[in-house]
Write a structure and sequence with these properties.
mainly alpha; 2 domains; 0% strand; single chain; Tetracycline Repressor, domain 2
Length: 214
């Protein structure tokens, strides 16, 4: 009796997680489709095959759902690590796990780059990405330009370039990105902040939202 009663909560937990993932998948599918500039919660519920009431039981607001979508790959990567602490010693392990997750979910990654909703998700993550990078590399933490360069080197944009466009395997691509990040940290440690240097061909400052003209 105790074994049977103990299995029921685990089954319910698995079913709940499956429903949660189905909702997230539905959001991503709709975001990837043409003309999905805005997504309604009822539309997500219909695609996921659940009632709107059920959807709101898992995600109380659309913002909460978007947050779950935005951080799904990172949470999957962290779940594969025996030590969830992210620092320079664990960056290679974390990025490898993250990019493996991207590799089996490429349409979702592409949707984040090709759709308005996806770009909102990426923008929402930027603050956290910068904060994580500052903790990751104390040597570069005070250098805003170095931090942004490190964020770019370990981003989904770099994943798409190295894996989807250039054909590197995810593990090798992650190793290349970590190597490049280590070069940046070593340079800042040895030569000081990038912001203090007159880098060659340094462009004029671009205001947020301003497009760069060719």
């Amino acid at each position: 009796m105790s074994s049977s009663s103990g299995s029921r909560p685990r089954l319910r937990d698995r079913q709940a997680e499956a429903t949660r993932q189905a909702i997230i998948d539905a959001f991503l599918e709709l975001a990837h489709e043409a003309n999905s500039v805005s997504l309604s919660m009822p539309a997500v519920a219909r695609r996921a095959g659940v009632s709107v009431r059920t959807l709101y039981r898992y995600f109380a607001t659309k913002d909460e759902l978007q947050d779950a979508v935005a951080y799904r790959a990172a949470q999957r990567a962290e779940a594969t690590m025996s030590d969830p602490t992210l620092d320079r010693s664990t960056l290679a392990l974390y990025l490898t796990a993250l990019w493996r997750s991207f590799a089996v979910d490429v349409p979702a990654v592409q949707a984040e780059h090709a759709t308005p909703v996806g770009r909102q998700l990426r923008a929402a993550r930027l603050h956290d990405s910068r904060a994580t990078t500052r903790r990751l590399s104390p040597e570069a933490a005070g250098d805003d330009e170095a931090v942004d360069l490190l964020v770019a080197l370990t981003s989904s944009s770099m994943f798409l370039e190295l894996v989807y466009r250039m054909g590197h395997m995810p593990d090798r691509a992650a190793a290349l990105a970590v190597y490049a990040a280590e070069l940046v940290v070593a340079d800042v440690t040895a030569n000081g902040p990038l912001a203090d240097r007159a880098l060659p061909n340094r462009p004029l400052p671009i205001r947020p939202g301003q497009e760069i003209q060719p």
